[in-house]
Each structure stands twice: as structure tokens, then as C-alpha cells.
Amino acid sequence: MKSRQDLLFEIKVSVFLLVFALVYVILTLVGIDTSGRFLQGNAGLDPTTFPYFIGIVFTGTAFYLLVKSIYQYRLNTEKENTDAAKGIGIPVVEKKPFPFPVKASLVPYIAFIVYIATLRLFGFILDSVLLSIVILFYLNQKNRMRNIIFAIVFPVFVFLLFNKVLDVRLPIGYIFGAKY
Fold first, then answer.
1. Which residues contact 15 (CB under 8 A, 6 or more apart)?
2. pTM for the predicted model, two decimal places
3. Which of 155, 164, 162 is nearest to 131 (CA)?
């Protein structure tokens, strides 16, 4: 069973993630230009579909984490109250340092914000390759060659899938001559 301090920390993190996800969804709805400068696909998709879907999934996941954390916190509190009523001593749990540094966990969020800000400049492929390299090397520094291969192959695959199969144009970037 988790300590009250761990559960309170989990609640705070889930509230932060929920707010972040909601801001992302709002920015997705407001920030993407759908005035016709991007070509719309024949599959019933437009440039807002995928980012909006990711935002909805992210919001749902953060909401689930919040509800689960609050539920576990209430169960823990009820168990402690029941044990106290029965006269069972509640062991004192020392607060252990959080094993994952919170400041270091901001690296993916900062990388993603930079990705969004530079998407039109660098285009989807280059920007996604750079984001993938940062995230993969941040998470797994041992398999460098696999990280580089995946960081190149996956964005190219997604680009080809959207452009060729789904007929949804992804940004190619100002530095490659795109005129939005």
C-alpha cells in the first residue's frame, strides 16, 4: 500500500497532467490553421484530427490517473481510520525521496513544446526525427544505434502513411521551401 504522501504527490501530478492536457486540447483547437492552406484528405481527416485525438486520449488518461489516485487515497484514509478505531497501531512510514527527479521529467514536455513551436519551420520529418532522438536518448542511452534508426524510420513511415495512404498533407517546413 502506498503512503499518504505518495498518494498526495500522485494526485498533484495527475492534476498537473490534466491541466496540461486540457491546455493542449485548447491550443489544438485554436492554434491549427484549417483555412485551406493545408490540403484536406479524402479519408475524412483534416490536419486537426490527429493532434485533437492525441489531446483527447491524453486528457482521458490524466483524468483516469486523477480518479484512481483520489480513490486510492480515500481507501487508504478509510483503512487508517478503521485500524485506529480497532486500536491497531498504524506504523509510521518515513518519507522516502521520490526515485525519479521531477525536474528531469520536464525534459520530454519541454522537447514537445519546442517540437510544436518549430513544426512549421523544420517540417514534420526533420522536427519529428529531432524530437524522437531527444526523447529516445533521454529514456534509453544504452542502445544508441537502435535509437537513431527508430528516430529516422518511424517519422518517415508516419509521413508516408499520412501523405500517400491517408492523403493528408503534413507540413514540409519553411526551410525546405514550403509556402503556407
1. 66
2. 0.48
3. 155
pLDDT per residue of the chain (180 residues) written in tens, 0 to 9: 677 788 888 888 888 888 888 888 887 777 655 444 444 445 556 666 777 778 888 888 888 888 888 888 888 877 776 665 565 555 555 555 555 555 566 777 888 888 888 888 888 889 999 988 888 888 777 888 888 998 899 999 988 888 888 777 788 888 877 665
Going from N- to C-terminal start, the domains of the chain cover 1-97, 100-180
Specify whether the CB–CB gap between 122 and 175 falls below 8 A: yes
Among 66, 69, 61, smallest CA distance to 25 is for 61
